[in-house]
Amino acid sequence: MGHADSGSSRSLPREQDPRLPATHVPGAFLPRTFPRWSNGAVAATVLFAYAVLRLLLVRATRLNSDEPQHAHVAWAWAHGLVPYRDVFDNHVPLFHMLTAPLLRLFGETPDIMYWLRLSMVPLAVTALGLAYWIGQGLWNRRVAVWGVMLAAVFPPYLYVAGEYRTDVLWGVAWLAVLAIAVLGRWSMRRALALGLAIGVAWAVSLKTSLLVAGLATGWLIVHVSRPRGERPPLRTVAASLLWIALGACIVPAMVVGIVAMKGGLAAMRYDVLAHNIVPGLGGAYPLSRLPRMLGLLVFMVASLWPLRSAANASLPARRALVVASAAVYGLLLLGAWPLLSRQDNLPVIPLLTLGLAGWWDRIALPGSVRRWAPAALAFVALGFVFGRHAPLQDRIADYRATLADVLSITTARDPVLDDKGASIFRQRPFYYALETITMMRMRLGSIPDDIPQRLVGTGTHVVWARRLPAPDRAFVDANYLPAVRGIRIAGHDFGQLGAGAASRMRLLLPGRYKVLGGDPSGVSLDDVAYAEPRELGAGEHTLSVTRAGHYLLVWEPAARLFGGFATP
């Protein structure tokens, strides 16, 4: 934030930086207009190359379990389920609301994650387009290209930026916030626009609170680092804050209103707020974070250093704000956030790489070294990426095949127990997603572990889960048979039976069952000759055989998944 166009008669010295747009009013915190891309072809080439890279990696990077979870929530929105009440979600809902039409468009298909990842490519390109815009406006085209290239091939950014997750939209929203904040002449209209963009980011992720704190702290640091004559009046600052706050409330209020109208507000309050607050979450503070915090602190101080000697600190101040806000966010995240994940840094990595590129552009090195070193580093990183993720390798194929099996043996009425929503198009018998916070709450007893009761009560015949607590895993192992790729099907393994043997078992889940294995003739179920799949109720049942063999009783719709067994 900076001086508004308030008609001050005080003359201001002109900024001496030759890269500053001619429309700049020195002493103001921002230039009068958004800078033009001096060579649109350069920007288009860089962003087109990044789009191609993103397309090559759609199948080549491993699926993160968060992606189907987000798809499951968006599917619930698309099919009229009450958000938060019918489907657990510990995220704020704007991303799922906006992408729900994609679930309707693509329909129930095992290829859904391919299509959803493809839909993220425009957002990923937009994020780096905004970063390029910021880089060219505050530094120059060379810094913009370097900064974007470094972010584009930085593995922790590259892998996550192409996933179907809320954080991709969050990153775009926050980069838009920074572009609005530093690439135009300040006015109350711009303050309102800035607030609207912050509100969009807030409606996508509550971690925006840390970003806002980082931006506010960065602005305050830059503000006190500037000469008094170049600081905006307090009246302008106060008015700007009011308009920003007003704008920031609009989108979240609309989103909460929609959830309330659908009847999910009470559940949303728990899922988004209460569920995520657990005493002791994350355990003792990890000292491994300290080196990263020190690095961010040094980076922030380096970004502020040019303010000491600048004849007019307007342009260096805006550069410093971009870098300092990202660094302060990183410090807050590392210092206060109990659980860290790769996606936490999506909004700030492009800002930090711009700062790094700007620093590299300033140091006195031979022109060829300064010009080509960032490109060489980017190509080395790209080689590392392709070495680990060959573009022609399909790392989603196993998930797709498993989802295809689950969808083929179930209908929309059949619940499936998965960890977090991997089956996407099927309801889950257990409300909570089996993620880190849920598992900790179950250990503490604040979430009752009633998974066995829910499996029986909802008639769930299919389990596709790897994160079950030990008692629940034991229950599933006892009542569900392993099929293919981690899918388990309701049934019973009688084991190897001798000729003339009879074996009793207790069935918990009623349904239509089929006998597999052994000899096709001479099989009786409950003293009735077995000829075809039969409806069985819960309770004890007896299998009698006249010939020796290995026999299974499986839920009939999934019998084809047990291809190694003959069918009596």
Summarize the structure.
The protein is α+β, with helices and mostly antiparallel strands and 568 residues long. The chain has 19 helices and eleven strands.
Chart the SSEs and their pairings.
Elements: H1 40-56, H2 66-78, H3 94-106, H4 112-138, H5 141-153, H6 155-161, H7 166-182, H8 188-204, H9 208-225, H10 234-262, H11 265-274, H12 290-304, H13 314-336, H14 349-362, H15 367-388, H16 397-409, E1 416-418, H17 436-444, H18 451-457, E2 462-464, H19 470-479, E3 480-482, E4 488-497, E5 502-507, E6 511-517, E7 523-525, E8 528-529, E9 534-536, E10 539-545, E11 549-555
Parallel strand pairs: 1-2
Antiparallel strand pairs: 2-4, 3-4, 4-11, 5-10, 6-9, 6-11, 7-8, 7-10
Helix pairs in contact: 1-4, 1-5, 2-3, 4-5, 4-7, 4-14, 5-14, 5-15, 7-8, 8-10, 9-13, 12-13, 13-14
